[in-house]
Amino acid sequence: MSFTDTLNTLSWGAERLSLMSKTAADVERALGKTQRSFEDFKALISPVARPYIEAMAQQSQALTRQRFGLNQQLFAPLYLSNACANVCTYCGFSMDNHLRRKVLNEAEIDREANALAAMGFQHILLVTGEAPKVAGVDYLAAALQQLQPRFAQVSMEVQPLDQPDYERLQQQGLHGVLVYQETYHRGVYAEHHPVGKKADFDYRLAAPERLGNAGVHKIGLGVLLGLTDWRTDCLMMAHHLRYLEQRYWRSKFSVAFPRLRPAEGDYHVAQPIGDAELVQLICAWRLFSPDLELSLSTRERADFRDRLLPLGITTLSAASKTQPGGYAVDADAALEQFEIDDARSVGDVVRAIQHAGYQPVWKDWQPGW
C-alpha cells in the first residue's frame, strides 16, 4: 500500500474539521506527553493553541537542545538552471514568465563552487527548474561528479525522478533530495500546476518512496505555506512523514517552512501564514517529531530568523542567491526564482548564531565513513 493509497483514504474536510474542533484541554494534554500522536499534532497546530505558543517554544527549545545540542548546520543553494517546462502560478521560473533562461556549464559551475567554498560552505543544495531536456539526469550526474569531491554533502532540489535515476545519482555522491509536494490538496495542486509533468500529483507524491527504495540518505518534505490552508496541509504532511519513517527507517528526514515570496508574475498569496503562526508550526513539528531536521531559509527576515533559531530549527541557509550563477557568474536579479529577505553575509549569520550561544556547523558528514 503506497502513501497515495493512504492519502486517498484521508478526507481533507474531515481532517480539517477534526483539527479545528480541538480544545484547550486537548492542547494541554498534548503538552503533557513525551510521545505525541496525530491527534496531539492537530491540537498543537490548531487555532486554540495560540495562547500556548510560549509553553510550546520552551518545550521545543529543550527538546532540540537534548537531541541536537547547541548546533546549527549551514548550507547554501547552488542554482544550476532556471529553465523550466512547467507552469506554476507562484514561481518565478514558471515557463510562461518571460525571463532570460540560463543553464550553467561546467566552467560556470566551477566558478560558483569556488565562491561557495571560499565562504566556507561544505553542504550545498543543487537547485534547478524542471526542464529534463536541458537539465536532466545526465546533466545532474555530471554536476554531482564535478562537485562531490569538493563538498562533504551535495543534496538536490530538482524535478522528481524515477528510482533508477536516484540510484544512479547516489552512485555519484548524492546525499539528500528535497521534493516538496507544494500542497496535499489535489484540487489546489491542479489549480496551481496546470501545465507540464509537474501536473502529475501522484508521481510527485510517490517521489519520497522512490528515494527511500533507492536508499538515499536524507529525504526532505515541505508544503508551500500560503498556497492553501497551512494547518490541514501540514497535517497531511505529518501523515506522509510517519508513513515514510515506518518504512525507510535508514533514511533521515527533514521538513522546511517555505513561505511564499514575491516573484516574477502576478501571483498573490491566497492564505498567508503570520509570524506567530509560523513559530507555532515549527514548535509543533519539533514536539511531534523530536529527531526531525527542521530547516529555515533566507526567505525569512534576518531578525525573525535570529529569534526562531533557538526554538527548534537545526539547519539554516545563508548568503543565498536564487538565480543560476548568482555567486560568481551572473548577478542579474531578473534571473531569480524569488526574492530573499535575509541578505546578510555568511559572516554576519555566523556571528548571529554564535551570539545566540550556538555553534555553526559546516560539516557533519564525510562520504565513505
Please explain how this structure is put together.
- The chain is of the alpha/beta class and 369 residues long.
- It contains 16 helices and 9 strands.
- Helices cover 42% and strands 12% of the residues.
- Helix 3 crosses helix 4, helix 4 (38-45) runs antiparallel to helix 13 (230-247) and helix 4 runs antiparallel to helix 14 (275-288).
- The longest helix has 18 residues, at 230-247.
- The model has no long low-confidence stretch (mean pLDDT 94).
SSE class: alpha/beta
**Helix amount:** 40-55%
Q: How many strands?
A: 9
The end-to-end distance, rounded to whole angstroms, is 34 Å
Kindly report the average pLDDT value.
94
Order of helices and strands: HHHHHEHEHHEHEHHHEHEHEHEHE
Determine the number of helices (DSSP H or I, runs of at least 4 residues): 16
Query: How would a crystallographer describe the biggest sheet?
Result: 8 strands, parallel, barrel
In one word, what is the shape? globular
Strand content is: 5-15%
Radius of gyration: 20 Å
Low-confidence segments, given as residue ranges, are: none
Q: In what order do the strands lie side by side in the largest sheet?
A: 1-2-3-4-5-6-7-8
Précis, in short:
With 369 residues, the chain is α/β, with parallel strands linked by helices.
Task: Provide key terms for this protein.
2-iminoacetate synthase ThiH, rSAM_sf, 369 residues, eight-stranded parallel β-barrel, alpha/beta
